[in-house]
């Protein structure tokens, strides 16, 4: 009784995926016409490097949002991890060890979110809002409100270096994307992430350990936030106590621009990458075009709105 | 007599698939017009077009002689069209009274201020009219599915619709409420209301309808006067071939070892002191009136809710079940009564739904083996004749009955020891029902024990080897196959039976 | 060396108090090393003077500052040190302290209203001007300049920009080719500068409204292998180090520790009934490579 | 066939309502013991005045959250309305007219959110994130980045004055609460708000004009944000371009602390008032106890978490 897959279904599917890409394409087109510097190789790598931090955060948040959650604490985890790393480096610790410690700390912070949300049944918004405040406070306590500088050229290369002309952060972003894509698409954990977001009760009744899945996604998010904190610290040769403030909003915007639904259960990682690029290209373009500062926010908000609206419009 | 409602050549497609291929349908004043057909035939879709939920792609709709464009549920309501949809459409957080008058609250003239007392009083009398006694101040989420269905019925009655559509209204009701509903339908009929009645329960169709229209694959097969047709002909028209006897031949009653034993299962305020055991190959029927605690019993068994007390043995081994995962590992499976609420992942594909409980065995070091998953899904789709555009079809777009098959199907890939089926044939068409019955027999034949919860009394009586009846959360009586007659079971369910403490 | 001069506090060694003075300090934000240093200067002075210091952080929010000051009034402090988030809005906040008959001293930023006993500050407009003049001098009145602005709408961003433009706008040979906000933030300073470098090929100098942004810009310039004169503001430890290394040309030092220290000293003095001046200037100084 | 109302249900219901109140009571108890200044009449009015801004925002957001939405733009609407008011007053406009214009502007901004969300089908989080950016940008453009001062004593009394010893903003808060409570509890609009949040499809099928309801709640939220912007401007004798930044987070926290579910359909306005008080008492207490500022954030986040967790714990 099986009817064959409908060609239109495929088209819709394709459109859904192509929506954000079309938005990005449009922006690139416009910018390359009005700003001759935009499509230089060097600027392309520049934009890619700039988005790497946001993209890493957004990748993690994609997992969280797919389960129907949200993570507002990533900016604070970024700052605390960065501060820890810089502090350890300044104290002369081996860079690899420092990285390991920081990543572990980030993963634990994420896991704490996950436990609060799954075992404590606290709404994700409020749980991560509270930990956002706590982790930021801890960063201030740890740094005493001042940047921590260190001097370690080898470590700095993680953020500043190039590998075959490609900026190292872009390579990290590529690796993270590939690994997470696989995790989401080809493993049972990935499937459970979608299941928990789609219908948590049904997932639980099917034997999915929903609590573990939730703890898992927040841990991933924390780990990636920590990783981006490390890269940022490497790039800046220092860690700022205020680093990453309100980064969560840009990261969430990237996820949603990429077509992932905030209700959970629906979305994809490539979309997030594209969403991140939209935001990066936008920021870059505003700078290249020297848009006056007060107008930048107006333009940025409007472009995001138009992108989302176009996407909706296309799908109908 | 001019028909109240006339639909001509109505067409509707979803994503390019024609679901309604030019359907003609009419409804006279004071008639009950039954609409029947297999799962996915397009019955609900036709009614949703009428209700202004889906825009039609072609055709005309005339209401009381005038052609109308029904663009929204509001327009439908203003034309006197009232619909009870197949899926419950209540706001769980609001009270019964608030739900009954949602969108049409009684307000003080000229002010948007609600007249609470008037609403509560009217709600009470509405509920009384259909013979239910639910406190209108209770919140809907606290009601059982059956009670919610009654609230929906009361709601649509209160709209004083001239055209009333009931899309499987009895699926969640027991005999008693069904009887009251039919009385209500008869009285509405005598007042001139036209009623479209959709059901998969053939005896109901013959009891209540004046005309029957059969829909198959989005086309009208035939419209007959009820008195001029019979069950066999109807089934043949629906399915396109002959189907004999609905309940399959019972296999010889040879039961094996005890597979599950339950002692003193309780949860305060819900159920108390449930005892039973089921042997390999045996089907234990669990009966009770609405709210008697059947679903609750199943939930406690499977670890969906925490029990206050109760011990469970599977194959003589004591098991600790604190969450569904434990139950699954102990060899239990559970087909829940609320498929949308907790049975399905509506936004995911047929394949993903079917494979969800089996991902561990389908994957190696966490990585899913795609081909094996696809093979599993295809196999189940074929075995259960699930009507779908493919294993990658989104489950939310399947018809109600086909969704139900997916819910059952997802458990069948593994070989469970005990299977709890809560209303497994709710909303399922006659051929699919038969498949499900055969499946149950095959599973018991393989040594599985089944706990069958069903409000469909004929189904329960003919499929069960023994019947346990609950009354207000306690075991009321226990019947062997021979004792389990309609009268005995109903008497026990209404509290008139001999009380039993132990039903092993 | 140090350009400009510094004011030496003449308030040290006040006589021992009979009762412990309770001082409230409402500070605009502690998310910024500048104010952290100011706070520490104040704490140290309070300890030395044996005074109790209660600190509230307004997190750059004027409304929170209003609440903080009210809370301090509830605490019945003897005297209030206010570091306004905003010079105009603070007036009505000061009025409520006036009503409660608690004397107010402003630090770092002035109040445009209310009854203020004394004011201790350096001048941001003046600092912007100093930066502009220094840049003009270094580039010999010719070249293209980039301005990295602070958080739009903050007084520091506004005042420094104002002073800077006062200095350079009349010079025909120089041109500000880009003015972009980088929110006082190092990471943002880096990415904004990277972007500007993509379109502006020949930049002679950069003025950043604070050191954090300046240091971010330095990273971008180094990565692009360019040689551009960068001037920052605040003289944070990192910035002073960068000046020593030569990656930063100069930074304007506000001596926040002195502002905090003098604030407390003046407060103690006033609380003990001694007469105080209405204005104690804390000189700006320019830190450059020796 | 009627099942009697379960005594346990009633207890749960009651506990749910009493949960936040107990949290507030506990905090008040602790604070009045360790800080003698805390329970002064003057400090009580002080706290009430301090929470009035947050409470007004939170009232509006309660409506939005009840429909299952979220409004991140309230802080920006507050700023823009405040700036408009101050601008008009500085230009010599009649205060009442200025207020009227500002409130209208706020309502329109909110309505714009509502239209984007209902007609444009943009996710509330992303729609209001975009408008948050846009309205903030417009505020900067309008103020040219500078605070706007005005001189109008009569107007200032709206924020600074007292009426029978009660601070005027507290009176506004009381009025707004009473009106909104009635609206939510006793009008069909109020019921529809719950219905849309509880089951949008069911509401629509029952003939509720769900789009209108959504536009309605965002309009209310915008109106209240604008109102609080006016009060703040009156209180400070001037309007800051950066006013209200991140106020949305405190307001949302107040709503959730009060027991309203972010999933929509469940909640109550009294809870929001209590939630607002919890946050206000916390801020006040941290100041009175002279908690070092870096630790304040840690403490604040932790107390919010504990309050929410206790609430969950009680309910089980
Ligand atoms: N929103 C939708 N999008 C895509 N396909 C749909 C949608 N709604 C229904 N369909 C498809 O239309 C067909 C008819 O469905 P409909 O619900 O009308 O069947 P039905 O006759 O009511 O069946 P049942 O007895 O199972 O309720 C099915 O194949 C279903 O998959
Ligand atoms: N979530 C809930 N909250 C409160 N009471 C509930 C809840 N779910 C069920 N109940 C009540 O518990 C009792 C038992 O319900 P249950 O669903 O187990 O009944 P049932 O016998 O399965 O009936 P049905 O035929 O409706 O499925 C009913 O009185 C019902 O109202
Ligand atoms: O003076 C301070 C610092 O320079 C800081 O960098 C920004 O805020 C200003 O007020
Ligand atoms: Mg149907
Ligand atoms: Mg049931």
Automatic annotation (TrEMBL), chains A, D:
Keyword Acetylation: no
InterPro entries recorded: ABC_transp_permease
Pfam families: BPD_transp_2 (PF02653)
Superkingdom in the source lineage: Bacteria
Entry keywords, A to Z: Cell membrane, Membrane, Transmembrane, Transmembrane helix
Major localisation: membrane
Localization of this protein: Cell membrane
Membrane-spanning parts: 21-39, 51-84, 96-116, 122-142, 162-184, 215-237, 249-282
Membrane topology label: Multi-pass membrane protein
Record keyword Transmembrane present: yes
Matches recorded under PANTHER family: ABC TRANSPORTER PERMEASE PROTEIN YPHD-RELATED-RELATED, RIBOSE IMPORT PERMEASE PROTEIN RBSC
Protein's name in the database: Ribose transport system permease protein
TrEMBL record, chain B:
Keyword Membrane: yes
Keyword annotations: ATP-binding, Cell membrane, Membrane, Nucleotide-binding, Repeat, Sugar transport, Translocase, Transport
Pfam families the record matches: ABC_tran
Keyword Transport: yes
GO molecular-function terms, A-Z: ATP binding
Entry superkingdom: Bacteria
Protein's name in the database: Ribose transport system ATP-binding protein
UniProt lineage: Bacteria, Bacillati, Bacillota, Bacilli, Bacillales
């Amino acid at each position: 009784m099986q009817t064959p897959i409908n060609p239109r279904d495929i088209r819709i599917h394709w459109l859904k995926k192509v929506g954000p890409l079309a938005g990005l394409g449009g922006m690139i087109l416009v910018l390359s016409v009005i700003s001759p510097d935009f499509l230089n190789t060097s600027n392309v790598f520049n934009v890619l490097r700039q988005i790497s931090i946001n993209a890493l955060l957004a990748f993690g948040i994609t997992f969280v949002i797919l389960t129907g959650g949200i993570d507002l604490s990533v900016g604070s985890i970024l700052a605390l991890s960065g501060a820890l790393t810089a502090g350890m480096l300044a104290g002369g610790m081996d860079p690899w060890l420092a990285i390991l410690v920081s990543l572990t700390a980030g993963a634990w912070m994420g896991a704490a979110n996950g436990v609060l949300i799954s075992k404590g049944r606290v709404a994700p918004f409020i749980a991560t809002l509270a930990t956002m405040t706590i982790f930021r406070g801890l960063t201030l306590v740890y740094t005493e409100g001042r940047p921590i500088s260190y001097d370690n050229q080898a470590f700095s290369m993680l953020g500043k270096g190039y590998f075959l002309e490609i900026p190292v952060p872009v390579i990290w972003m590529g690796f993270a994307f590939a690994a997470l894509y696989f995790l989401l698409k080809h493993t049972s954990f990935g499937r459970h992430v979608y299941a928990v977001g789609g219908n948590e009760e049904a997932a639980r009744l099917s034997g999915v350990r929903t609590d573990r899945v939730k703890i898992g996604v927040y841990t991933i998010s924390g780990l990636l936030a920590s990783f981006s904190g490390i890269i940022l610290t490497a790039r800046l040769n220092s860690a700022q106590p205020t680093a990453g403030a309100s980064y969560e909003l840009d990261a969430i915007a990237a996820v949603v621009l990429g077509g992932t639904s905030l209700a959970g259960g629906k979305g994809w990682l490539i979309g997030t990458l594209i969403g991140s690029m939209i935001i990066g290209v936008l920021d870059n373009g505003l700078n290249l075009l020297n848009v006056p500062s007060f107008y930048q926010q107006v333009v940025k908000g409007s472009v995001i709105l138009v992108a989302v609206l176009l996407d909706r419009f296309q799908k109908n | 007599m001019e028909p109240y409602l006339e639909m001509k050549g109505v067409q509707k497609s979803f994503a390019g698939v024609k679901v309604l291929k030019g359907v003609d349908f009419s409804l006279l004043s004071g008639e009950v017009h039954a609409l029947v057909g297999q799962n996915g035939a397009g019955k609900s879709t036709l009614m949703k077009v009428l209700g202004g939920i889906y825009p039609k792609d072609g055709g005309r709709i005339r209401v009381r002689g005038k052609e109308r464009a029904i663009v929204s549920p509001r327009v439908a309501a203003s034309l006197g069209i009232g619909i009870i949809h197949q899926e419950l459409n209540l706001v769980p957080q609001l009270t019964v009274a608030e739900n009954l008058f949602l969108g049409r609250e009684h307000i003080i003239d000229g002010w948007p201020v609600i007249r609470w007392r008037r609403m509560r009083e009217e709600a009470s009398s509405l509920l009384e009219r259909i013979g239910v006694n639910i406190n209108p101040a209770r919140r809907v989420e606290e009601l059982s599915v059956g009670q919610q269905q009654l609230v929906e019925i009361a709601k649509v009655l209160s709209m004083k619709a001239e055209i009333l559509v009931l899309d499987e209204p009895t699926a969640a009701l027991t005999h008693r409420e069904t009887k009251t509903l039919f009385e209500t339908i008869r009285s509405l009929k005598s007042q001139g209301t036209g009623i479209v009645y959709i059901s998969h329960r053939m005896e109901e169709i013959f009891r209540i309808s004046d005309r029957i229209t059969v829909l198959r694959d989005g086309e009208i097969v035939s419209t007959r006067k009820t008195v001029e047709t019979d069950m066999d002909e109807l089934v043949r028209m629906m399915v396109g071939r002959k189907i004999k006897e609905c309940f399959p031949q019972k296999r010889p009653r040879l039961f094996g070892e005890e597979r599950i034993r339950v002692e003193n299962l309780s949860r305060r305020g819900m159920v108390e002191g449930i005892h039973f055991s089921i042997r390999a190959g045996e089907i234990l029927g669990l009966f009770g009136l609405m709210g008697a605690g059947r679903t609750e019993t199943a939930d406690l068994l499977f670890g969906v809710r925490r029990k206050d007390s109760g011990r469970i043995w599977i194959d003589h081994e004591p098991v600790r079940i604190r969450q569904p995962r434990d139950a699954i590992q102990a060899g239990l499976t559970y087909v829940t009564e609320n498929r949308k609420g907790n049975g399905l992942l509506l936004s995911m594909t047929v394949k993903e739904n079917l494979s969800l409980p089996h991902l561990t065995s389908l994957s190696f070091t966490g990585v899913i083996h795609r081909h094996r998953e696809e093979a599993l899904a295809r196999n189940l789709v074929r075995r259960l004749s699930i009507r779908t555009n493919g294993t990658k079809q989104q489950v939310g777009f399947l018809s109600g009955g086909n969704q139900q098959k997916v819910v059952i199907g997802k458990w069948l890939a593994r070989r469970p020891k005990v299977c709890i089926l809560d209303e497994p044939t709710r909303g399922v068409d006659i051929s699919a029902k038969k498949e499900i019955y055969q499946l149950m027999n095959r599973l018991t034949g393989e040594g599985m024990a089944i706990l069958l919860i069903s409000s469909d009394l004929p189904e329960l009586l003919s499929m069960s080897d023994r019947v346990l009846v609950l009354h207000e959360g306690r075991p009321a009586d226990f019947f062997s196959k021979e004792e389990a007659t309609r009268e005995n079971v109903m008497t026990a369910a209404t509290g008139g039976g001999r009380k039993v403490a132990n039903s092993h | 060396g140090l350009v400009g001069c510094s004011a030496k506090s003449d308030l040290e060694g006040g006589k021992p108090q009979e009762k412990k003075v309770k001082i409230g300090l409402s500070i605009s934000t502690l998310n910024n090393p500048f104010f952290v240093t100011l706070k520490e200067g104040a704490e140290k002075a309070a300890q030395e003077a044996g005074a109790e210091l209660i600190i509230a952080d307004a997190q750059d929010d004027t409304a929170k500052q209003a609440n903080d000051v009210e809370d301090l009034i509830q605490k019945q402090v003897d005297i209030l040190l206010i570091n306004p988030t905003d010079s105009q809005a603070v007036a009505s906040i000061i009025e409520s302290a006036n009503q409660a008959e608690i004397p107010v001293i402003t630090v770092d930023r002035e109040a445009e209203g209310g009854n203020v006993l004394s004011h201790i500050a350096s001048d941001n407009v003046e600092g912007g001007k100093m930066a502009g003049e220094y840049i003009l001098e270094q580039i010999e009145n010719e070249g293209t300049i980039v301005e990295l602005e602070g958080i739009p709408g903050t007084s520091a961003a506004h005042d420094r920009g104002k002073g800077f433009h006062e200095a350079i706008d009349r010079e025909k040979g120089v041109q500000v080719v880009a003015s972009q906000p980088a929110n006082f933030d190092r990471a943002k300073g880096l990415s904004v500068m990277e972007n500007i470098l993509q379109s502006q090929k020949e930049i002679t100098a950069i003025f950043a409204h604070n050191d954090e942004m300046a240091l971010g810009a330095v990273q971008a310039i180094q990565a692009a292998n360019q040689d551009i004169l960068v001037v920052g503001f605040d003289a944070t430890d990192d910035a002073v180090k960068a000046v020593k290394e030569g990656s930063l040309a100069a930074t304007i030092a506000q001596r926040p520790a002195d502002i905090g220290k003098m604030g407390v000293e003046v407060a103690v003095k006033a609380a003990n009934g001694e007469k105080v001046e209405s204005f104690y200037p804390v000189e700006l100084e320019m830190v450059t490579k020796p």
